[in-house]
Amino acid sequence: MELFELIKAFILGVVEGLTEFAPISSTGHQILVDDMWLHSSEVLGSKESANTFKIVIQLGSIFAAAWIFRHRFIEMLSVKNAKSEHRLKLSHVFIGLLPAGIAGLLFDDFIDEHLFSVPTVLVGLALGAVLMIVADLYARKVKNPISVDGITHKQALIIGLTQVLALWPGFSRSGSTISAGVLTKMSHKGASDFTFIMAVPIMAAASAKSLLSNYQYITSDTIWFYIVGFIAAFIFGLLSIRLFLELIGRIKLIPFAIYRLVLVAIIAILYFGFGIGRHI
């Protein structure tokens, strides 16, 4: 492949790594950067190949989260952790995953067919931003918010139910679940930890399922495009997750919500005003 094409793969991997776990919607950024500008489908030869590329780079981000929280996953599998009353357990993660997992199986085809468009993503970005602002305003009234190890099964279920909203493209998985955690009196850091830990198994399963159905689009002619994108997503996923976890306790969610609303305005102007991306 030509160098310029590999640069495109690198840029898309960077965008995925930086946005997948931040509450700003990786879907919205992929539309802005790829569908409206770089057009990976033209490099790879089809829309199906471009969608497969998005699955591959998402796996890069998932691997980054799995690596950062590897000690947590090992800890949750230990007998000692299972007996402790004040530690995050696999049961919390399972309960948090259940609602979105069921909804995803029931409505996956409908979502793919009807909700992946620029207007629906804009709606998701805007509504998700409103939820984040509400969560931050509520958090100001909460004294002594709890950490991830203080989470109850009821809180995990509420967060899991809210995660169903993220099936709407643009809403953002982390934006919805961190907001739900904060609204159930968790700290921003605690809600973020639970969100990232919970995201690894459900996103890995969904990506693996999609990849098994579309692996034929990865050919010897395009393999380096996928490899470069995957590596970029993994490296920048590591950096962005660590930075986000350092910052979230100080800056909270409102700055991210404002950024989302600005992104909505940019995409809306490009799409409705200039017709960029109307083919999507």
Task: Quickly describe the structure.
Keywords: Antibiotic resistance, Cell membrane, Cell shape, Cell wall biogenesis/degradation, Hydrolase, Membrane, Peptidoglycan synthesis, Transmembrane, Transmembrane helix. This protein has helices at 3-19, 26-38, 40-44, 47-68, 70-76, 79-83, 90-114, 118-139, 153-163, 173-183, 188-214, 223-251, 254-273.
N to C succession of SSEs: HHHHHHHHHHHHH
| Tally of helical runs | 13
Low-confidence stretches: none
Compute the number of strand runs.
0
Structural class: mainly alpha
Helix content: over 70%
Largest sheet: none
| Percent range for β-strand residues | under 5%
Number of domains: 1
Q: From the alpha-carbon coordinates, what is the Rg to the nearest angstrom?
A: 19 Å
